[in-house]
Amino acid sequence: MNLLALLAFLLTLWVSLNLALPRLPSIRLLLARSLPAKFTRLGSSSISSKAVVWSIGSKLKSEKKANSGTWVQVYSNGDVYEGEFHKGKCSGSGVYYYHMKGRYEGDWVDGKYDGYGVETWAKGSRYRGQYRQGLRHGIGVYRFYTGDVYAGEWSNGQCHGCGVHACEDGSKYVGEFKWGVKHGLGHYQCRNGDEYFGEYFSDKMHGFGVYQFGNGHRYEGAWHEGRRQGFGTYTFRNGETQSGHWQNGALDVRDNTKNCYEFSYNLLHYIYRKHGELLRKLVTLQRLTRECIKLCQLQTKQPMLPEWWLLKLSRNKCIIITVKKYQP
């Protein structure tokens, strides 16, 4: 009797297990559902925080792989970039906000400014123009927070080529620049009415030039590091002249009285030759300033380039007047 009851119990248990086991979850499924959540909770405290990214376009395949697309990225220092990425770098069009410093909006190539862009700073300075390899390069207009404006050519982040520099105090310079300083042919207007047209070297009047004073006096001749030196003539507003060899800004009277006729002859040829050089440079200067003039007229209410001196010299009037005036 006991044996029959035991057999009946075992048979019932076997039938029940056969019916119930197919509906129970497997051990692998239980592990797959429970272990990842546990590992995530245990390892979440050790993962360092990264940049917050909102992605539009290509999905992030892996945090360690290069990404391409368009999204907004926030950096740990507070900077924010919104725009296009290519292989993990800013490339295309985008806006970069510098935390408490300013912003740049424009073209990017391999994480650097490249193309056309507008850069503004917190103090109020602003640059609008061309870039190359992260530096101002090409044609651009820079407005300083002090009120000064430079419009013209740039090279590797510095004023280089033809340009216009207008100061807040009313003084203006139009001419050639070399690595951030006046160098070459230029025209300078002082706020007191004085004007200088001639050659520059390392930001100083150097070579041949004409200085017109606001009171009517004028000097035409050679300059050396900002001072009158060499052949030159000083004309007073009443018509009187002093011609001779100048040294450190003062007239050397001995040279003037000794060889008056010889000096006048040499001065005539010197001025004629120098005016010819300035005219040849002027042709190049006029060509380079065309695009600059357009930028200036767009950026300011009044054009900053005094076109009158370009036309005056282009007709060779200075040569004719000088030759007649200095004939011995």
UniProtKB/TrEMBL annotation:
InterPro entries: MORN (IPR003409). PANTHER family: HISTONE H3 K4-SPECIFIC METHYLTRANSFERASE SET7_9 FAMILY PROTEIN, PHOSPHATIDYLINOSITOL-4-PHOSPHATE 5-KINASE RELATED. Pfam families: MORN. GO terms for cellular component: membrane. Keywords: Repeat, Signal. This is Uncharacterized protein. It comes from the Eukaryota. It comes from Gossypium trilobum. Residues 1-20 form the signal peptide. SUPFAM superfamilies: Histone H3 K4-specific methyltransferase SET7/9 N-terminal domain.
